[in-house]
Design brief:
Blueprint: E1 4-5, H1 7-14, H2 18-28, E2 31-33, E3 36-40, H3 41-50
Antiparallel strand pairs: 1-3, 2-3
Helix pairs in contact: 1-2
Length: 72
C-alpha cells in the first residue's frame, strides 16, 4: 500500500502553507478517511511530475518515469 499523508505532513514536505495544500488537493486527488483528508504519496508524485518546467519556461509533459519518494 502506498503511504498516506496528512495535509500537515505534505505542507511541511513541500514547504507550502496548509491552506495551499487544501487548495491543491482537488488537483492532486485525495481520500476522505473518517472525515479527514489524506493524500497518497503516489498521487502527490504524479502531480509534481506534471508541474515540472523546462528551462524555456514551458511545462514538460510527463515521461512516465517514477520520481523518488518524498522524504521527511
Amino acid at each position: 500500500m502506498t503511504s498516506l499523508l496528512t495535509v500537515e505532513e505534505l505542507s511541511r514536505k513541500l514547504k507550502l502553507s496548509r491552506s495551499k495544500v487544501y487548495d491543491l488537493k482537488e488537483k492532486i486527488g485525495y481520500l476522505k478517511v473518517g472525515g479527514s483528508v489524506r493524500l497518497t504519496e503516489d498521487d502527490v508524485l504524479r502531480y509534481l511530475d506534471g508541474c515540472r518546467v523546462e528551462g524555456n519556461g514551458k511545462r514538460k509533459r510527463s515521461t512516465g518515469h517514477q520520481l523518488q519518494h518524498l522524504e521527511a
